[in-house]
Specification:
Blueprint lengths: L6 H12 L11 E5 L2 E4 L4 E4 L14 H11 L14 H12 L3 E5 L2 H18 L9 E5 L8 H5 L4 H4 L9 E4 L4 H7 L4 E6 L15 H11 L3 E5 L23 E4 L11 E5 L1 H4 L15 H16 L2 H22 L4 E6 L4 E5 L6 H11 L1 E2 L1 E3 L3 E4 L7 H16 L22 E6 L16 H4 L3 H21 L3 E5 L15 E4 L2 E4 L5 H4 L1 H14 L5 E3 L13 E4 L4 E6 L7 H9 L3 E5 L12 E3 L5 E3 L6 H11 L3 E3 L2 H5 L6 E3 L2 E4 L4 H9 L3 E4 L3 H4 L10 E5 L2
Parallel strand pairs: 3-13, 5-6, 5-7, 7-8, 8-9, 16-17, 19-20, 22-23, 25-26, 28-29
Antiparallel strand pairs: 1-2, 2-3, 4-10, 9-10, 11-12, 12-15, 14-15, 16-30, 18-19, 21-22, 24-25, 27-28
Helix pairs in contact: 2-10, 3-10, 11-13, 12-13
Length: about 700
Amino acid sequence: MDRHPPVSQLLIDAERAHCAPNYAPLPVVVERALDCHVWDVDGKRYLDMMGAYSAVSHGHLHPRIVAAAQRQLGRVAVTSRAYHGDTLGPFLDKLCQVSGFEQALPMNTGAEAVETAIKAARRWGHQVKGIADGQAEILVARHNFHGRTTTVISASSEPAYRAGFGPFTPGFRWFDFGDIASVRAATTERSCAVLVEPIQGEAGIVLPPPGFFAALRAWCDAHRMLLIADEVQSGLGRTGRWFAVEHEDVRPDALVLGKALGGGLLPVSAFVADRWLMQVFTPGSHGSTFGGNALAAAVGLEALRVIEDEQLVARSAALGRHLLQRLQAVQARWPHCVRAVRGRGLWAGVELDPAAADAREVVLRMARAGVLSKETHETVIRFAPPLTITRALIDEGVDLFDQVLATLPAAGAPRCAAGVEPAPVARPPRLLMCAPEHFVVRYAINPWMDPSRWQPQDAALRAQARAGWDALRACYTALGAEVETMPPVPGLPDMVFTANAALVVDRRVLLARFRHAERQGEQAHGLAVFDRLRAQGVVDSLHHLPEGVCFEGAGDAIVDDHRGICWMGHGPRSDLRAREALAVVARRPVLALELVDPRFYHLDTCLSLLSGGELLVVRQAFSPQGWQQLQAVAGGRLIEVPEDDALHLAANAVCIGREVVMGWCSAALRARLAAHGYGVRLVPLDAFRRAGGSARCLTLELGPVA
């Protein structure tokens, strides 16, 4: 019998023998990793639900970031900031563009960036606010974690971080996280700044109450204090926004960034602010030999580009909502074990009852089951997977977590199934339609339109269009919807397709701009209609696109409140550049999908959202990247439309309650919908299909019925 210990144990023993015991790692010896998985030296595969404390947000060894590092390694890596380089400027330009600030000071680790923030705040307090040198105070939250340097632990209230490391740096005053009254009590005439995490990560993924950051911003403004957000863990997409402070529409005076900025390869961090604050630094006042080195800048730039190009912020928002729903279902199943589930985006904490479950034991059992996580504060299990994770992998990880809880002696009997609770069905909508008095196919701007085939049957097709439109309106009314109408206009036959006029979300209207000259005349009429609706109190505000940017309203955008995002189609009719304006008006991350089949030229021709969160989709309409996004985010919630149904524009449907209103539906598609609990209401809309539209094209949702 082989009595030699396994390779993993030999490596663990070597590490323990020669490494200072400042960590207590799990007994997993990682040999290699790729995207959301790691493998140990014995060949076992694990799902990474930890993401190196948000440092591996891009997944392990993202090929684009690795390639950028390899290219730079063949040129130059480190020269120090004694000289200029050709990578730092582009990196900081991109970082400032993403963050919305004017300048950045590059460092290496998150703790160094926090130290930079402290120095900036103190010097600003002295030079600008007039606080005596050496007297400036910074307000920090109890239970914070800003790093482990001696100055930073001086700001900590945690005994474990401070014990034996004194004397401590003065100049910090504590307040209770989320308590604005405590902030007021901590403020003195020497207060120069508030340094705070938008979400306290090491404390157990603790969120502030709604309105706290808005009140904090107002308090800082009133008392001439800087508001500095430590987004080392929460930033760069982790919470479903670029930065966690965006959830409250708050702009701090500075950001502290790190972890994901290094793309999972290198330590890269930065302090980001506007020029008026950055001017406190002068040559020689602060620096770092490695900060902003050529290799780090090349990697940081590509890391930011990957987040943008792969739309990881929107994915985090959508998949984070699914992760939280699944974990909340686990809590409902094991109430004796799980006290609370907290989180935002792909960052969640599950607080365990220490009388029923030891967090360290749970993460050990999870590792044995093939899922890597980590406990914090002895009672909370953290989930922070790479933002590249898929819905299917989230389900796999949560299922294994659920199975681990079932093995605990104190778990008790499960209360309910661990699946996702069905989403509540929304109220019936208020809809906008335009009568087809002037509808005719007299030009061709998509493959469906053929004037030569329309003209010989003009009278009959006009009659069919009118009858179909009347039937559609009656169907909506029967299902409880309220229908507003806009007047048709001679010479603008496609005004009947009201979905293209605008997108209306939460009573805000983003007005369309058409690419084709044949439809551009509709814009003035659409503006007049929405002005009238605003005067009537149906909508609150109208918003315009930047000059030169095309976007065809709800035809290319779907608000998905099941996932907390907007889907957007781009390519044939709408510009990708419209994504920024859409995100501002919708106040949701936007996940853009490229449309590549000319027959499906609008998103609403190939994707419809059903009331339970399923997506009715035409696979061939999307680019490979777009289809991958749909699969990753929606997974088993996709209902593919058969080819013949797709060519009859069956996906151009409107869902009200559990009924799907369609112009066409085969028996096969009807059966697929029935399997998901939906009925079908068929309306004769063939005349409109000759112009490339069906039920959804003819309809613009204004919001729910009051």
